[in-house]
Amino acid sequence: xxxxxxxxxxxxxxxxxxxxxxxxxxxxxxxxxxxxxxxxxxxxxxxxxxxxxxxxxxxxxxxxxxxxxxxxxxxxxxxxxxxxxxxxxxxxxxxxxxxxxxxxxxxxxxxxxxxxxxxxxxxxxxxxxxxxxxxxxxxxxxxxxxxxxxxxxxxxxxxxxxxxxxxxxxxxxxxxxxxxxxxxxxxxxxxxxxxxxxxxxx
Length: 202
Hints:
There is one protein chain. The chain is an all-alpha fold. The protein is built from eight helices and no strands. Helix 4 (about 65-75) runs parallel beside helix 6 (about 140-150). The longest helix is centred in the middle third of the chain and has 28 residues, at about 80-110. The radius of gyration is 22 Å and the shape is globular.
């Protein structure tokens, strides 16, 4: 008698049908759903030369603290204690954000968003390809840390400019799909937290 071939174990329906794997349950699932929803808001804007170029420029200014060096120059335009305070603020923000960002990225090790389907207009300011952990957004962390340290009581306009600039940095990272929304929100929160610590050192 010929033995019947053994039936291979049934594959998961999602894998067999080619559908994406089910989303994790619990908090991870909620965060993932929010990340996807926020990313979908940017999708209609991607491919537009205006929005794509703006995102590239803003992200470029956020690289290596260029935006915050310019902000320091603006804050230090007058001689005296204000100039010295602005220089100290930049140094503190730079050291704090770099140490915390490097440590958290090494600890978390979150993969970056899938950019294979990303449609962004070519040309304009070149953008570095992200290679480190996705969480937290280093650009956003540094931006909000610098804005918090450099903010001053009684300077509503200047503070609004600082935090608007920091918010634009975070939005540019989402537009370019360099990060998930949770990376940017986390980076902003951590940046402000260590920025408040840095203000005590001024």
